Amino acid sequence: MQSDSAPFEIARRDWLKSAALGGALTLLGQGRSRAETQAPVAGRKVRGIVFMVSDGMSPGVLTLANAYSELTRKRPSTWWELFNNPSASRGLMDTASANSMVTDSAAASSAWGGGQRVNNGSINMSPKGKPITPIAQLLKQQSGANIGLVTTATVTHATPAGFAASVKARGDENTIAPQYLDRIDVILGGGSGFFSPKNRPDKRDLHADFVKAGYQHLATRDELLASRSKKLLGTFTPGHLPFSIDRDHDEKLSATIPTLTEMAEAALSRFLEDEKPFLLQIEGARVDHAAHLNDIAGLLGDQLAFDDAITAVMKRIGGREDILLVVTSDHGNANPGLNGTGTSYGESTPRFGRIPRMKASFERIFSEYGRLQKCDPPRIIELVRQHLDFTLKQAEAEALCSIFAKEPIVEWSHQLDKPEGLLGQFAGNHTGIGWTGTSHTSDPTLVSAIGPHASKFSGIVRNTDVFTHLLELLD
Length: 475
Fold this sequence. Notes:
Layout: H1 12-20, H2 34-37, E1 48-54, H3 61-73, H4 78-84, E2 89-94, H5 105-114, H6 135-143, E3 146-154, H7 158-161, H8 173-179, E4 186-190, H9 206-212, E5 216-218, H10 221-226, E6 232-235, H11 244-248, H12 251-256, H13 260-273, E7 278-284, H14 286-292, H15 296-317, E8 323-328, E9 332-333, E10 337-338, H16 348-352, H17 362-370, H18 377-388, H19 394-404, H20 419-431, E11 433-434, E12 440-441, E13 445-450, E14 459-462, H21 463-473
Helix pairs in contact: 5-21, 13-15, 14-15, 18-19, 19-20
């Protein structure tokens, strides 16, 4: 995967040595002054908070993504370096929901955005069915703050909605969409269908309503890059944005759909130019979707796209002492890990090195297979060879055919007895990557924070504490 960020210019060992000696280097090796890299004064007023979420990122993904960055970009990942930065705080997020040790994105984001643990599947709705006022509405009333939601999912998906909406069911995105009007200032991602009269059950033209309220409606990457409007509604696809691996290997997608970094910069630049306080959520949503699919190339492609967005944000806020950056995840998912293979595990690294040769997501492969008229093992073998660069065995292709046809197969794990579970296992034989299943996990997630009051996000952080910190800091 290509990156627009500058090459990392010094080795990690040298960087740590320089930091220990009080050297004048940032974690990105950009050569800023020491004053710009020191931890800001704890009591300094916070004007803005950038809250970045790699959705569904299991803790082990940080290690995998850093190794993948070293392999493909010849430098460490920015989040890895942020974790090593002595000015940053580090913690673990307690992610449980009201009704389960394992949370979904709706309950997780509601804890951040509403301050209460709710049942999985609901957004800012108490277990007793009482609506909870989301943080976006509170901040608008409290200080007139600018609020931004940037995502690679539909903009009305669970994680962005947790900061701005209240609904009984997370899937009711048609009800979520109008709640953003005049509550969110910059909205960028997918989901045009939930704003279009052609798709909405009530036939309401929400795009037109937003335009009447002073928003510029954007539908393409070029429109985003050319825009100078302060209030934006950018919906670039009917559903989720494509996986980065598919976008990067498709000229048309690359030309028409913005990257997460481009959307993040568009939102942040507008908020930095204004004097109002702001809260900006930036979500790399498709990391979670790739984990559900047991798709390691799709996952790492989107994780590095998220990492590029971290890089861009840190460059934008570098030298400022009034902006807090928090980077975390809402829950783990499927816990991918590199297994030891071969004598003395000597095959593990070479197998991991096969991942960059994969050129499409499982989603694309399944979509292409779905267009076939009947089960065809040779065609499945060809699709996998073409897109993933390994050859399925005949028995493996036949097993995929059977499971697509909902026929019984021998698979003892119910988590994996599905097409994505099988293909993930077959790919793992060539990449060394193993998965615990295809669903969320209860693991605490990683938290990094840098800027004023970053220490609030150190140690064990209960997900509902995030709401309290965000609201108090932006008071």
